Structure formats: structure tokens, C-alpha cells
Model the fold of this input.
Amino acid sequence: MTDATLPSPAPKPVSAATPEARAERLRAGLKRRYAREKRFKLYGLLAIGVAVGFLLLLLGRIIEQGHTAFYAHSVTVPVYMDPARVDRGYPQGTNFELLVAEQQLARFGVVDDAQGTKAGAMRSLFSSELKFVAAERIQRQPGLIGQTLPIAAPLSDDADLYYKGQISRAVPADQRRLSDQQLDWLDQMKASGQVTSHFNTALFTNGDSTEPELAGVLGAVVGSALMLMVTALIAIPLGVGAAVYLEEFAPKGRITDLIEVNINNLAAVPSIIYGLLGLTLFINWMHLPRASPIVGGLVLALMALPTIIIATRSSLKAVPPSIREAALAMGASKTQTVFQHTLPLAMPGVMTGSIISMAHALGETAPLLLIGMVSFIPGIPHSLGEPTGALPSLVYIWENASERAFHERTAAAIMVLLTFMIIMNAAAITLRRRFERRW
Amino acid sequence: MKFNILRAPDGTESSAGASPVMAAPTAAHAASPVGPTKIQARDVSVFYGDKQALYEVSLDIPDKTVTALIGPSGCGKSTFLRTMNRMNDTISHCRVTGRIEMDGEDINARTVDPVLLRARVGMVFQKPNPFPKTIYENVAYGPRIHGLASSKAELDATVEASLKRAGLWEEVADRLHSPGTGLSGGQQQRLVIARAIAVEPEVILMDEPCSALDPIATAKIEELIDELRERYCIVIVTHSMAQAARVSQRTAFFHLGRLVETGDTEEIFTNPRERRTLDYITGRFG
Amino acid sequence: MNQHTVKAYGDELNQLTAEVARMGGLAEAQVADAVDSVARRDVALARAVVERDARLDAMHRDIEKKAIRLIALRQPVASDLRRALASMKLAVDLERTGDLAKNIAKRALILAEGEPMQPLTRSIERMGKLVSMRLRDVLDAYAAAEVDRAMAVWNTDDEVDEHYNSLFRELLTYMMGDPRTITACTHLLFMAKNLERIGDHATNIAETIYYEITGQEFIGERPRWNPDDAPGADIGPN
Done:
């Protein structure tokens, strides 16, 4: 009962200190707290700065590399349609390239040697498109044979690069793609006013091509669009339906939990695995056509499904239970409550989730590579069953191409891809803002 | 003359569980100016998983009368209210035992569809929850899904009549197609009441309908309840004893999941039989 | 003032006031009839007054019950609360008034058996008429809810005292003159006392009306008959 020795004096409670001492303590503490807050804000700003810095760096590099792809040079040469060489009945058979090269050499007063190397050198300054343009003119108006026509066609990719300043004389001649003489000729053509620079519509109207000056993204864009259409038509109804079932109708229990865990895991599976799945299941087992939008769409749909399910579920969860209760209390059945009340109210979140997952699917490359979209496919696709390219795989192909001119075009293709993604994400954000409800 | 407002309660306290209430319903009804019995609950218990929330509650709810359920938080009054339109069915792991009859019919029988039951027993919640649709659509929802109106004109008339009976028509007649969520709290609650009565229920259950409203809106709702009781059987859960006193003709006091006392409101608030009731209404609880 | 949002509440308050007004009417009638029965030696009237008193008691209990119900169930505040309380107080005053009137009627029955005593009963009649009028005025003030009229009644409390004192002296003189009249005069004295108490009740009612309408306690000295004004002051009542 009695204490032999008293322990050290118990700490006094805060209220025991004098008001002045307490005020002093508060003031000192306040300074520390404000300092900590300032430091924290600084860290935040630094982090944002670093992130934005990298983003600007990335975008800057891409734009710097790719902006030149948006304009191209064309040349207008007067071509004498030599009746001796132009076949009236079959203009396409005429070797216009040689014809034009020889005429151009003659114009420059250059004498060719026996093997015609100079003509060959001159020829490589013009795009192969030239012959198609000329042949087509003659085909339409055969009466033009014997006249001199101005034919306008793009220049070859190397000539274009020279005009853009990417091939310079400073580099030793054996290390560049154009010889000094070719460069002289190009200067001459430029000086004579035959060369014009204009917006590179070919980039947006043509399909892929081995000739860089003729290569365009349209084929890949249409391929991506077809694939996305398939993905959307499959993934969105399935995903929303599955989420609605899991959230509203499935009995809460072990099995439902198991399904939920598995779906969450699927969202994290590397995309190349889906490519393997597509290869094994759709191409090898179901014998669907390789590299077709249908297969690409199916694979991307499988990839997008878990994300859509998760986004839809959380939108459904966010609908306040008071609305459900009100509907049920009115005598609505479970199904009526879900489809007339809960789902419409969750729609903004569902749409946002769907659009964002579509945006992700647009940019996925690894699965596309495995289902065969790596190969060169010219032309614009017309159906779901024919082999197509897609934007991401186009970037991959162009990056690996040998021609120098593809560098800028790769960056341009990346810019096109990024633009689409920005548009889709912006659409998602706008939609969310517009339809967001304040409860 | 010595006029005791509150008699000291009888020496005997009733043991927990047994309610000296509805052993002889007819005698009690003979004394009170209320209608015939609409809903009869006998030995109703409710379990959430293993936890028991209501212990053998037996209560008669008369028709064309306002019955108030009062008691401290968590005493089971809302749980009991929700058994009457089987809203507890929507909660998983919720089990209801005992018998609840409306007009003599067991509402928990397998042959009874809860969807149809809820067309006869409407509910108004604590926080006004109009659908995020137009005012017209809110009131028309019930008749639509139950197929009660055969033409647009009939539906229009039903909507107008319901809004009039809820005392909201004058305020919204010119903006029937504006969203219901744009109204004030009191108006929203009246809209919800109009929505509930649009299907011509027989019973209206109200779960603390005024607790989210200001005093003026509350007074308007109480006046509305007074008017509605001529047509409907109304059961109202309220944590405001003053409101129960103002609004109801019969009062039931719940405590810890048990029904402690039932009686005419005037008697409960001037001279209750049970000590616990007296303590609760005079604020001597806790 | 606006109506109560909950109409039933407003109705209940009005019913309570109306009930008090009815009880006032009955009490007034009792007083008037009691005095009449003394003046006219009307035995049947006196008996009727005695029997009717039970009704006044019943009305008092009824008003109390209604007021308690109103307070318990409606939780009135401010003016509504004062109205409920005032109606209870008035009911008490009116019930006492009725009892006093019954007492007068009972004594009238006894007087009627004896010799008529005109001048004295005429004095009682005059005092009775004054008291009756004051009672009627104050009840009118209650029904109309007019403070000024109530205060007018309150201010004339001394008139009743004057009557009482003069009657007192008259009766004393009579009793001293003729000892055979002592019994009758005593009864008359009690009647006068009862009438004076009825006058006090009317003044009480005026004070209650003041409190109900203004919400303020009534502070003031009741006008008293000044004892220094007349000879024989030491035998004055107050």
C-alpha cells in the first residue's frame, strides 16, 4: 500500500504548463510544421517537374524527328513523249524512267557512258511513281504522244532527304547515299525552279510501300480501325455484361471471389501472352486468317476485357444504394432495377473505362507481332479477313527498315498514333466530366 | 383536485421479451379511435447472420392510422419496418422468422411475390431519393412498371392526382419535365411520397422521413401525413419523440430489439405503463 | 398571424379557447342567476344553479385534460404555450366562480324561507350586477384577445371592494339594529363576500389574459379601496 520510494515525478499534462510556455511551444511547433509543408510541396513540384520534363523530352524528340515527314518535294519535268519509245497501245510498258533520265541528262548537257551509269544515277533521283503518272497521262490521252508534257511526280527518298538538309556534302562521298554529281544535279533542278515543296499527302493517303516517298499510314490506320471495331463489338458487351452479372446478380461467395481475383490477375498479364494465345487458339486451331483484323480484334478484345470488367464494376459500385433501394421499394424487379436505374447511372464510368481500354488496345504491339502483323502489307484493307497492318506494327516495321527516309516517317507515324490516343483519352475525360453526377 | 400528469408506474416491471401488449387486440382496439387491423405481426424475429436484431415482436398495425415506432438507435425499429415490405430480402444473410399478415395473408409465403407486395406497400426513406429523371418520370415510374395506366392520358391524370395529393402540384405543375433532383429537400421528399402513392398502395412505410429536412419542410410533411392517413395505413419510424407525439395515433416503443410497449399515443406520452418507456420519453435513458 | 402548417394543431388550440369561452358563459350565467334568485326569492332558479354547478366542474376537468394533451403531444412554445397555460388557469378561476355562485344560490334558498329583506337584497343585487358585468367584460376581452379591455376590468377592482365595504357596514347596522335579522344578515354577508371573491377572480382572469397576450408577468398593485377614505375604517375588510 505504501510506496517505499516515489518514482521519478510523473510527466505533467499539457494543461499544467503556464499559458505563456504553451504558447511558446505552439509557436515553435508551428514553424516546424510550416517548414515541413513547404518541403513536401517542393518534393511534389520536383516530381511533377521530372515527369513533365521527360514527357516534353520524349515529345520533343519525336516532333523534332518527325516534323520533316509532313512535307515532301516534288519535281515537274518536261517529258518529251517520244513516239518511237512510247507504245501507243500499251503505255505502261514504256520505260519512262530511262526516258526521263536520258532527257534530263541531255538537258544538263551530260554525256553518258556506254553502260548508262549516269542515266542510272539520274534515274535514282526520281521516284518510281513518275512512270505511273506518265503512263496514266498517255493512257488517258494517247494523242499526247509526240508532245512535251510537264509531268509532276515526287522525288526519290534520297533526293527528298537532300533537300531537307539531311544529306550534306560535308560527309565524305563514300559515306553518303548520293554522289557529288547527283547533288549537283539536284542543285541545278532546284535552281531551275522545277522543284516544289508541299504537304506530304502521300503519307496520309497511301498504304505501306517499300519506297519511302510513297509510303503512307492509311493502310495501317484502316487496319487499326477495323481491329478496334472488332475489339469494341466483342469486348464492350461481354465486359459490361460480365461485370453487371458479377456485381449485381452473382451470389456472394467463394466462387464469385475466385472469379474476381482471376479477372484482376488477367489485367496484369503481359500482352505478349495474349499474342501467344491468339496464335495458338485463333490461327492454329480455329484457322482464322493470319494478320487479319478479325484475329487482331479478338486478341485485343481478350486483353481489354479484364480492364472493362474492372472499370464497369467500380462504376456500378459507385452508384449509391439509395437509388437501388428506391427502385426496389417501388416494386421493380432486380433486373429492372439494374437495367433501368443502376446501369444508366453507371454509364459515364463505363464509357470512360471502355474508351480508355480501347485507347490502350490501339497502342498494343506485342500481341500483333505474334499474330503476324509484322510483314509488309501494301494497300488498304477492305475486309476483316484479309491480312492488314496496324499502326503500332507499322512503326515497328518502319523503324527496322533500312532506308534513311523511314526515320522521319517512323516518327511521323508515332505522332499519328499519339494523336489518336490523345483524342480518345480526351474524349473519355470530356465524357466523364459532362456526365459526372454529384450525389 | 390533485391532477397527476404522470402516474408512477406499477411496481412490477415486465421481464425482457414479454410485451404486455397484444394479448387481446380487440379490447385495445375498442378503446382507441383507430381503424381495423391492417398488418399483424406475431413473434417476428430477424437475424443478420448469427446476430439477432429483433426478438419475437408481436404488433398490430391498424388501418387508416399513423403508427409511430420509436426507440433509441439500433433498437430494431427500422429492421421491423423493413420486414413489412420484405426489403430485408435484398440483404444477404438476413433471416426473418415469425408470421406477418396483411389482410389475413402471410406476406412471407412462397406464393407471395415481393415485387407485387411492394406495389401494395410503399416506402419513403430517410434521405429523399428521387430518381435522376424528370419529375413526371419519377411519379410515372411505378404505374409504368406495374402496368397500371393503359394510356398516356391516364398516366398524366395519375401523375397529376398523386402530385396534388402530396401537396406538390402547385409548385411543380409548370416544370414537370425538369429533373427531380433540382427540387429542395422538402420538395424532393414530397415528390418521393407522390411517387409512392402513384401506385395506390394500401400501406405507406416511412423510415425517418423528416430527419434530413428543416423545420418548415418537416411541418409540411407532417401536415401531409395527417391528410394521407385518411386513405392509407401509415407506419413511421422516427427518432424524434416529439414528432411521434405530433403525428401518430398509435405508438410502439422498441428497445434492444424488443417491443417494450404499445398504446395510444396520448397514453404513451402522458402516462406510459412501462418504466423503460417513461425513462425514454422523459430523457432519463443512458 | 399565419395558420399553423399542421392544421389539426391550430384546430386543437382554437377548440381549447372555445371551450374556455363556453365555460365562461356558463359561469357568467350561474352568477347572474344566483343573484337573481336572491333578489326575486326564486327557489326553482336557485336549485337549478346548484345542480348546474356539476357541469362547470366537468368542463374544468375536460379543459385540463385537453390542455395537458395539447402540451404533451404538440409541444407548444411561446404564444401557443401561454395560450394552453392560460386556458388551464382560467378554467380554475371559472370553476371557483361557479362554486361561489352555487354557494350564493344555496344561501338564497335559505333566505327565501324567511322574511324578504328588500333594501339589503337590492344592494346585493346591485353588487351582483356589477360583478356580473365585470365578469362578462373580462370574458369578452378573452374571446376577443384584447388586452386593453382586460385592463379596463382590472382597473375597476376597487369598485367591487367599495360595494363590499358599504354592504358590510349596512349589514352591521341592520344586525345591530334588530338582532332577529342576524341569521339572514349573516347569510347576506357571506353572499357579499362571495361576490367580492368573484370580483377577485375576474381580476385574476384579467391578469392571466395580460400574460397570455403580452407574455410578460403582470406587475402592479391592484387598486384597493383606500381605508383612509371612510369612517369606521378599522372594520374594513382588507
Summary: The longest strand of chain B covers residues 37-48. Residues 152-165 of chain B form the longest helix (14 residues).
